[in-house]
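Deviations from the work plan: none for this task. Representative record:
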Amino acid sequence: MTQIYLDNAATTPLLDEVIDAMVVVMKNNFGNPSSTHTLGQEAKTIIEETRRKIANELHVSPAEIIYTSCGTEANNLILKSAVEDLKIERIITTELEHKCVAESVENLKNFKNVEVIYLNINEKGDVDIEQLQQLLKSSDKKTLVCLMHANNEIGNLLDLDRVADICKENGAYFHSDTVQTMAHLPLDFSKTLVDFASCSAHKFHGPKGAGFAFIRKSTHLKAQIHGGTQERNLRAGTENVVGIAGLGKAFEIATDNLEKFSSHIQEIKDYAIQRLSEKIPGILFNGRSAESDKSLYTVLSVSLPSQNPLIGLQLDMKGIAVSQGSACSSGAAKPSSVLSKILSEETQQNTTPLRISFSHKTIKEEIDALVNALVEILRL
Ligand code: PLP
């Protein structure tokens, strides 16, 4: 059975070029980057060269890129260190954030006495930016605003520049979880004045176990993991040299081909919207999913017009991998936390959510196969 993979927001397959780059490092560069001998310094060069390339692409200083093991760790590092080191009294966020942000914020509320305000969201998943502005203007509490760039379940995009400007005007710090957009959208942090951002290599055909936090130097954050002086004292532990080499290669390929990949994927997404609308009467597109200017091109969230909790399994049996929410929630019986916040009770009770997510490798025939399988399962 041929496998059709349409769950690229959960993770992406490694590219051959990335595997090749990692194998070379695995074979030749086992040295510890902290060692002063040649083998160690060769490994150090790999991680510093990669850091420099990433920093150039984002228009920041290499010292502002801190390698982590994943997006979850990057978000934890930023949120927890910001609260401790910047004496944050208040976090403004929404209930639509990824679990790793939501749980970290909850933890800071419970154990560090930080006030947490959740901004209003409407039925499309739009964040109330006016409310943010008013909240910031009406209090001089030390505030960290934490709003993701693209939602991993529905794809909604935040106007990063606008929010960053509002935060700057009002003296608030701004962290954006950019795990779904890093290396997928052009990001220039010399113009978009976020203080913090996060990245995970496995979202753009790099390896699992490698990511980074962007931490603006002027914020002077300190570590959560203590030990050696690696990562400019911000993240102790011997670096994952192979993973970092893979991260670098994947980042390079994704950013060098950004226009080509994004226009191909947008075309695939438009085709999927068209075919699903034609063949499945009553299908709903969740959030801003079907609006190309307001949604990340890799993610399409739909509600199928009847309840069928087994749909993911039935598609899997036909060799098609999609998600019934997000990867973190799809294993659980609970509905997706994002959809339960934006869809009416009635819609939730009478529909079945599906997240279809694409990569530059997705082809129209795979969309046809998905649509045909859905028509068969739903007996349309
Ligand atoms: N943030 C967002 C928006 C994500 O989609 C994910 C992964 O699904 C993460 C954070 C966590 O990244 P990682 O899997 O690298 O821990």
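The mean pLDDT is 96.
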